UniProtKB/TrEMBL annotation:
The lineage of its organism: Bacteria, Pseudomonadati, Pseudomonadota, Gammaproteobacteria, Pseudomonadales. One of its GO terms (biological process) is response to lead ion. Residues 1-94 form the HTH arsR-type domain. PROSITE patterns: HTH_ARSR_2 (PS50987). This is ArsR family transcriptional regulator. One of its GO terms (molecular function) is lead ion binding. It comes from the Bacteria. CDD domains: HTH_ARSR (cd00090). Pfam families: HTH_20.
Amino acid sequence: MSNPSTFTEVAALIAEPARAAILLALFDGRALPAGELAFAASITPQTASTHLAKLVAGGLLACETQGRHRYYRLAGAHVAQAIEYLSAIAPLSAIVLKPQSREAQGLRFARCCYNHLAGQLGVAVSQALEKNGYLRAIDDKHFEVLPAGEIWLRTLGIDSRTLKPARQCLDWTERTHHVAGSLGVQLLSAFCDAGWLRRSKDSRAVLVTPKGWAQFKAQLGLDPRDLENLEHKPALAG
């Protein structure tokens, strides 16, 4: 199959559990080798190679070669967005994670969604930006950055005037929107650079540092006690 042109062909590619697990493993925007993706999907390297070839041929993954190694990543933000919306109907995490596992809880609280912040924290930050008059939903797909938001974003080193309109992304665990698009990417990067957040090396989970909680409360009025199901919050980053 090469570049499937029908809905059913694309749906069939995503529907297979091992391929769905591979797509989820790449959901944070990283490029990973076949061995790591085989482990994530609980399949043999040989089986992973077959699935990866189908996903590349189907236009869902891209392959990058560095020396003798091949690295796979999502073909683009449009793929991540499609999976995110499908996951809002039936969460794909159930394929690779037990519903109440520590990892599943951590991913629900805060995770990377194609290089922007998702989960309970991502939604809470988005709602706080609206509450503080920094963003305003202009339709069911986009946010508008307001003048006060432009000023606040500049304190993080972000010039919103150079970015495309902020996109809304439907969060598949929270069933509501978080900030995505170029602004979402810049926000996650700024939060990490400022030491508020730390990305996990082993998964899509994001950890909040003590400095991060202090700054989220001081600047956005976010208190960890206000977040839903806080008892599932993972340990603070050191």
